[in-house]
């Protein structure tokens, strides 16, 4: 069964763009080199951050279910771009502390692979853009 969720985007001035998601507002801006004030991350940076933070949520949940402390765990994400500037690949490395249980090292990678943002990108969603007055 299909469902929809609404996100409202406003243009508060300059190169700043805001998105209201439920009770939260995500602020974005462009860097000074693109005419912005660099007062917030650029929209594409927010998109990229969604990948890593989503994987982080899955890793955190995995650890919480098993009583594994998350102190010392960090994720590093690197992007690879083609000559035309198009995103070609995303590498995500999960850095685990020395005392992280050996038996869960492979499983923590598998759970990070289940990130909802990654799955949404892999599903190649259809984009429909329309304009209306009022």
Summary of the model, kept short:
The chain is an alpha+beta fold and 134 residues long.
List the helices and strands and how they pair.
Blueprint: E1 8-13, E2 16-21, E3 24-28, H1 43-66, E4 74-81, E5 87-95, H2 105-113, H3 116-122
Antiparallel strand pairs: 1-2, 2-3, 4-5
Give a written overview of the molecule:
This protein has two domains: 1-40; 42-122, GMP Synthetase, Chain A, domain 3, CATH 3.30.300. Helices cover 30% and strands 25% of the residues. It has helices spanning 43-66, 105-113, 116-122; strands at residues 8-13, 16-21, 24-28, 74-81, 87-95. Strands 1-2-3 form a three-stranded antiparallel beta sheet, with no helix packed on it. A hairpin with a 5-residue loop joins strand 4 and strand 5. It starts with 7 loop residues before the first strand and ends in a 12-residue tail after the last helix.
């Amino acid at each position: 069964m299909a469902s929809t969720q609404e996100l409202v985007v406003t243009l508060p001035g300059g190169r700043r763009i805001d998105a209201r998601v439920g009770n939260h507002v995500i602020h974005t801006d462009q860097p000074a080199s693109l005419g912005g004030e660099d007062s917030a991350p650029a929209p594409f940076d927010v998109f990229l951050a969604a990948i890593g933070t989503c994987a982080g949520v899955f890793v955190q949940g995995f650890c919480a279910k098993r009583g594994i402390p998350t102190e010392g765990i960090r994720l590093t994400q690197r992007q690879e771009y083609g000559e035309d500037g198009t995103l070609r690949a995303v590498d995500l490395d999960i850095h685990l502390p020395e005392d992280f249980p050996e038996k869960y090292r492979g499983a923590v990678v598998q759970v990070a692979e289940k990130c909802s943002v990654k799955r949404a990108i892999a599903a190649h969603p259809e984009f429909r853009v329309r304009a209306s007055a009022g």
